[in-house]
Write a structure and sequence with these properties.
Elements lengths: L1 E4 L6 E4 L11 H16 L13 H14 L1 H19 L11 E4 L8 E6 L2 E11 L7 E8 L2 E8 L4 E2 L15 E12 L5 H4 L2 H30 L4 H30 L8 H27 L2 H5 L1 H13 L6 H14 L4
Parallel strand pairs: 3-6
Antiparallel strand pairs: 1-2, 4-5, 5-9, 6-7, 7-9, 8-9
Helix pairs in contact: 1-3, 2-3, 2-5, 3-5, 5-6, 5-7, 5-9, 6-7, 7-10
Length: 344
């Protein structure tokens, strides 16, 4: 999406030339996001190279581009792309053409999903929280607690029950993220207990999420860049633009370096995947937070109040960044550095 400057007020106005119109509200936005997600799959735009196959940078570039257009579309796209990578890495069957996949692996406090075996196979019961694409996806990879440990399962969404009203936030509202009820749902196990988090691609996928944060931050920064290119915003706003440029360039460089390292060691034989993911995610989260602060500081309330695309982008990015666990993730990073050292 791009924004146009109002000729009289100098404020940014909506110009809906991306996949989802900035002026849309409520259900219309969610429907447009679902349609854009489906179109991205059907057009082949999400036929992405798998991580570690020599083209990880190109994979993340597509996700960042989608996030710049609409973070909710990118959230669904990243989940679909990650699901295909997981299935490939764990040796599962290739999904049928046209299927739309999600990864539902959040395990916050509260209701849990459990797995049990009967003579007919595996069954899932309970509540799974934070299921993006709850009504948009045809299939999902779901983590659940089984008697032999945490397992990953593939399920069809056909008989699932998304729970209305379980997402009350403005940010990422169009990502179709709801809690989902499972009642003796048939499930196909994907590899063994613990395999989902033990595989090298778990860390690689975590950096892919950061590529979406970067794309969203780049679009927020674009609001300031376009304003500065079209009118005199003053020296302080130009200083903010310089800081935004520095921050985004740093994030892009970190992502490019991480992509090259993953392609050089896809199986993580050097055991650097977790450290890399924690570093890049923390850096990109800090950059995105700084970009939002600088743009708001430079342009004031105008874009947030008068530019629907920009205000939704900021709201979406604010929520999306909370996939980073702040000091908890930094503490994990510090633990790794203390125990393994670091090449500073």
């Amino acid at each position: 999406m791009s924004e146009a400057v109002h000729p009289e007020t100098g404020l940014l106005a909506d110009a809906a030339d991306g996949p989802v119109a900035g002026g849309m509200q409520g259900p219309a936005v969610a429907e447009a996001v679902a349609a854009a997600f489906t179109a991205a799959i059907e057009s082949g735009r999400l036929d992405l190279p798998l991580p570690g196959r020599g083209h990880t940078r190109e994979r993340w570039a597509v996700l960042a581009e989608l996030a710049g257009e609409d973070l909710c579309v990118a959230r669904l796209a990243e989940g679909h792309a990650d699901a295909l990578a997981i299935l490939s890495e764990l040796g599962a069957a290739v999904p049928p053409d046209g299927s739309r996949w999600a990864v539902w692996a959040a395990q916050p406090a509260g209701p849990r999903l459990t797995a049990r075996q009967d003579r007919g196979g595996w069954r899932l019961d309970g509540i799974k929280q934070y299921c993006s694409g709850a009504r948009s996806c045809t299939d999902a990879l779901v983590t659940a607690k089984a008697p032999d440990g945490d397992r990953l399962f593939a399920v069809s969404t056909r008989h699932l029950w998304p729970i209305p009203g379980t997402w009350r936030a403005v940010g990422m509202a169009a990502s179709d993220t709801l809690d989902v009820s499972f009642d003796s749902i048939e499930a196909e196990p994907v590899a063994g207990p613990g395999s989902y988090t033990a595989r090298p691609g778990f860390a690689h996928g975590g950096v892919g999420v950061a590529a979406c944060w970067y794309g969203g931050a780049r679009a927020v920064g674009g609001t300031l860049r376009e304003a500065a290119a079209s009118r005199d915003v003053g020296p302080y706003a130009l200083a903010d633009l310089g800081a935004v440029d520095l921050a985004l360039h740093t994030a892009r460089t970190a992502l490019d370096v991480a992509a090259a390292e993953i392609d050089a060691d896809p199986a993580d034989r050097q055991d650097g995947g977790r450290l890399r993911a924690l570093r890049v995610r923390a850096l990109v989260e800090a950059v995105a937070t700084e970009v939002m602060r600088r743009v708001g500081q430079a342009l004031g309330a105008g874009p947030l109040c008068r530019d629907g695309a920009h205000s939704r982008r900021v709201a979406d990015l604010t929520v999306c960044l909370r996939q980073h666990h702040a000091e908890r993730d930094l503490a994990q990073l510090g633990t790794l550095v203390a125990s393994h050292g670091a090449a500073w």
